Amino acid sequence: MVAGHTYILGINAYDHDVSACLLRDGEIICAIEKERITRKKHDTGFYQEVVDYCLETAGINLAEVLQVVRNCYILPVHDMEERLMHQYMPHYLDGPEREKAGQSPLFLSKADNVVSTSHHHTHAYSAFTACPFEEGAIMIVDGVGSYPSDVVPQYIPPGDSGNPLARESESYYTFSGAQLTPTKKVWLEPARGFLSDEF
Ligand SMILES: [Fe+2]
Question: What distance in angstroms lies between residue 132's CA and the mean position of ligand 1's atoms?
């Protein structure tokens, strides 16, 4: 917390439309997609530019952010970063960005205030926290989201015991105030591997 303000930084990492959003005391003060900086449509990869842009706009540094919340639909961000250390996937982290990432305190961070959220949970929050209603229903129809093991159990509907290698495809919730309740999930079966034709 800085001068009485609470800052929360949200990051969408690695795959399409890498972006960041900075909240000050619960209000969005800056949000930007990487493509606006790099001029590459739907730009992927590391998130240095968008984080720097948000922090510079607010006139703060990373140490002044109370909480960093990161999302990536492929794997939780920390797991994705470990994978990227061992497997060269230039779509997600090319050579120059790998160097940049290695110097960032967020890359492979184990700090308590740097967390990952599962993918459809993140979609749900982006919808209902910004809507003007106190209660309602949420329908997420996505291509692909998290594996079951990467979803907090309380956000999987009771009795849903799907294939551990399936991915989120559709998710349904109800919300009341800040309370989110899962009602149904449709899983994308791992028939032909990652991003198969069912996508
Ligand atoms: Fe999505």
Answer: 22
